[in-house]
Write a structure and sequence with these properties.
The complex is a heterodimer. Chain A is mainly α. Chain A contains 11 helices and 2 strands. Chain A has 2 domains: about 100 residues, Orthogonal Bundle (Fumarate Reductase Iron-sulfur Protein, Chain B, domain 2); about 80 residues, no CATH class. Chain A starts with a strand and ends with a helix. The chains are: A mainly alpha, B alpha/beta.
């Protein structure tokens, strides 16, 4: 098994996930993959991925597209007979894949990062800016279609063009900065 | 009737692209006699994006809202968006369930002079608040224009039914179906009521999302529904705005109006479509109120045997 510091890949996944210790109880029953609405697009089903985590296949797991196709619907989590927080494990794997620079689906990661950027700068999300910035930098060929959809949204008064900000943005940013410091310390341990 | 006041977290979608949800929510609030008081200076819940790549900052982002609500004296928070509901509810729950996480989140909050004691604020979805605090009997009593003849598919989506089915079942929720019956409408046998709408997948892998949207629309149409009714702005956006794209990809021609549950309640309370924000949808929903009949439709006798079945002795009627 590959190990960073003293802990195995499996242990690091478990420790980074609230309730993650239940992963050791996986029965390999496959209820997760069978419940997954986007499973057909994944290169490994969640069940297979968990076996790979146990086997310490860190490279293969972190470069898999599986977590990036997770739609966060929690169907697997509620059906898992062992109550493994599968959706949260997918989140952990995305976070680890980004940190190690191995994400298989850069589009998904960039979309998240663009979204997060607006939230951190303003405290609110901003659809017009999010869609424009994300597609402009990552899918410029989509801009025409996006523009048409944007016009239709505008016509129906569903797309404000001016972003809103919260009042005490400094408070939010101080909290997020502190949370990031704690998270960075967590990773060093 | 006492005027009830609820601390309210509208979320980003309602102030932006799902204005009709906000309009209809406020309209039924004043019709039913409750007030939604928007909490001061709330921030985005992070949707699914923040949690999926940035765990601790995500919990802290959400906890700022809980801490500020608690500081303002709130013991509950009513949330109309399923994603906001999930994030607020999950943060409150996990901070209590995993004390190590709670401690770290509170350390981050202290940088903003805040602190949150898990369990202080009871996070509730708007549907839960309306159905448990007012109840079907009240809704029935307040109905001015029963929705006779209207066939509605109750779409719960993911995040209220899962992962913590707080007020209904994860696999087969019925609360909204029962509400339709109380309002005079007919809930249809809609099989994909908790199937995911695709969430952010429209932006990341459009065909994956369009396939999911197609399945839901088809299932609602097959159930004979006049409209599909959602409890989440993301679901409404995906099923309404992307329905045309799904039609093109799958060579279908569905035109299934997608409403918010608050618009349905509003129609029954006698409010006009205009007061309920009709007209902002992509798939025209103006025909839905026109389908309401003045008298209840005759109860169809359940067909028990196929016409082609072999002759068998029948029970006397």
């Amino acid at each position: 098994m590959k190990a960073a510091g003293n802990s195995t890949f499996f242990q690091r996944v478990v420790e980074a996930t609230p309730g993650g210790e239940l992963l050791s109880q996986c029965l390999q029953c496959g209820s997760c993959g069978g419940s997954c609405p986007s499973g057909a697009d994944m290169d490994h089903t969640p069940r297979a991925l968990f076996a790979m985590i146990s086997a310490g296949l860190e490279d293969e797991v972190l470069s898999s597209n599986t977590p990036w196709f997770c739609v966060s619907c929690y169907a697997c989590t509620t059906r898992c007979p062992q109550q493994i927080p599968i959706t949260d494990i997918m989140y952990t794997l995305k976070e680890m894949a980004i940190q190690s620079g191995r994400y298989e689906h850069p589009g998904a990661a960039k979309f998240s990062e663009t979204f997060i950027g607006f939230v951190e700068q303003r405290g609110r999300s901003f659809e017009a800016g999010l869609a424009t910035r994300y597609h402009l930098f990552h899918h410029p060929q989509q801009m025409v279609k996006l523009g048409m959809m944007g016009m239709n949204m505008l016509r129906r008064n569903r797309l404000p063009l001016r972003p809103k900000s919260i009042r005490q943005l400094d408070q939010l940013q101080a909290i997020l900065a502190e949370a990031k410091t704690i998270a960075a310390e967590e990773r060093r341990v | 009737m006492n005027e009830r006041r609820y601390p309210y977290y509208p979320g980003c979608s309602l102030s932006h692209r799902s204005h009709a949800y906000e309009v209809s929510t406020q309209a039924i609030a004043s019709a039913l006699g409750f007030e939604l008081v928007e909490m001061d200076d709330w921030n985005c819940c992070g949707a699914t994006e923040y949690f999926s790549v940035n765990r601790l900052p995500a919990y802290s982002l959400v906890a700022r809202n809980l801490a500020r609500a608690a500081d303002a004296g709130a013991d509950q928070l009513v949330v109309p968006c399923s994603a906001c509901y999930l994030n607020l509810h999950k943060t409150d729950k996990n901070m209590g369930l995993y004390p190590a996480l709670g401690k770290k989140v509170n350390k981050a909050l202290s940088a903003g002079n805040l602190h949150y004691e898990p369990g202080t604020v009871h996070v509730r979805h708007l549907l839960e608040a309306v159905l448990t605090d007012f109840g079907l009997d009240t809704l029935k009593e307040r109905t001015r224009r029963p929705l006779y003849g209207l066939k509605l598919a109750a779409y719960y989506g993911c995040l209220v039914a899962r992962p913590d089915a707080v007020f209904d079942s994860t696999e087969q929720p019925m609360a909204m179906d029962e509400m339709f019956t109380a309002l005079g409408a007919e809930p249809t046998a809609f099989r994909l009521k908790t199937f995911c709408c695709g969430g952010h997948m429209t932006q990341i892998s459009e065909t994956t999302a369009l396939e999911m949207i197609h399945k839901i629309i088809k299932s609602a149409a097959d159930s004979g529904a006049d409209a599909l009714v959602t409890i989440c702005p993301m679901c409404q956006l995906n099923l309404d705005v992307y329905q045309g794209y799904a039609n093109r990809l799958f060579d279908t021609s569905y035109d299934m109006p997608v409403l918010y549950f608050t618009q349905v309640i509003g129609l029954a309370l006698g409010l006009t479509p205009k007061e309920l924000g009709f007209g902002q949808e992509f798939v025209d929903a103006s025909g839905v109120p026109a389908k309401i009949q003045d008298v209840p439709p005759p109860k169809a006798k359940p067909e028990r045997r196929s016409k082609q079945a072999l002759p068998m002795p029948a029970m006397p009627e």
